[in-house]
Amino acid sequence: MIPQTFNEWTNCIVNDCKINLTKDFATQRLAVYLDNKNVETQKFISLYGEQHLKNIIQWLQQI
């Protein structure tokens, strides 16, 4: 299931993936996801779409 809300996403990341949502984590992920030429970002878009990428960026910015 692809999370549709910030709460669903944080639950998935923290409880399912066992990742701490720290400022450092958010900063590192934003560096990747804000770079449209990054291979990882392109793969993310191909798997989940542009809208989900925008959601993830917005949610990471809230951390």
Q: Can you walk me through this structure?
A:
71% of the residues lie in helices and 0% in strands. The protein is an all-alpha fold and 63 residues long. It has one domain (6-62). Helix 2 (23-33) runs antiparallel to helix 4 (50-62) and helix 3 (39-48) crosses helix 4 (50-62). The longest helix has 13 residues, at 50-62. The mean pLDDT is 97.
Task: Record the SSE blueprint.
Blueprint lengths: L5 H11 L6 H11 L5 H10 L1 H13 L1
Short overview:
With 63 residues, the protein is mainly α. It has four helices and no strands.
List key phrases describing it.
about 60 residues, mainly alpha, about 0% strand, globular
Largest sheet: none
Tally of helical segments: 4
Mean pLDDT: 97
Going by helix content, strand content and strand pairing, the class is: mainly alpha
- Taken in chain order, the helices and strands follow as HHHH
- What's the number of structural domains? 1
Name the shape in a single word: globular
Helix content bin? over 70%
- Residue fraction in strands: under 5%
Stretches with pLDDT under 50, minimum 5 residues: none
Distance between the termini: 22 Å
Number of strands: 0
Rg from Cα = 11 Å
